[in-house]
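Let us practice reading a record.
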Amino acid sequence: MTRVIYRVLITAAAFGLVVFAAWHPELWEPWLNAQGITRDDFMFEKGLKLILVIVVGVPLTALIYAIGRLGSDRAQKDIHGYTVLRLRAGTLWFMTISCLGLAALFFAYPMVDPASAYPWAFQAAGLLCLLVIPVILTAKVRYDGSTLNVSNSFGGRSTHYWSDLADVRQVPEMKHYLFTFKNGKKASVSYSYAGLGDLLETARAKMDVHTGSARTASYKMRK
């Protein structure tokens, strides 16, 4: 929590700096004019975007990541003996509140601007944001000694057998692990699930066991 508060302060300071600069162009515009750069120049627009990404985007991204890491990192057990992974509390509530906020904006925009084209498109986008919430709240990964059950992005679930597991690899740009099975099916598991470390250890152990069994069978056939 201390890390989140620290990053909130940094992000707030970054936003404050940007707002202050926007309200006081007399502090930086003369220097730009001396360099032969005006607000209409292409270089000014590109430089402004770069500055915003660095000054605001970097601390905001770090803040979102810190919020997402809040909560316990322990998996749970259900009454059937399955190990259950759910999204961390920080990720769960941040995404839920974000979806509610976006839905409110989409629904409100046609009221603020009655002349806006295709108001139904904004309403559809707001409805989609609301439909994402139950998907987030019910997302989970369940596994035992033989099967792996994973929620997908559309609210459905898929079940796979550990004996079919062929590969597990990270996809850093998408922030998830990709499980690939021998039957061609795939399952993605977000970095944001609590108890992910135990799941990965189980997956590697299962692959080692099946690889070892396959090597033993191949050796016996050759003999």
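A brief commentary: Strands lie at 76-77, 83-86, 140-143, 147-151, 157-161, 165-171, 176-181, 186-190.
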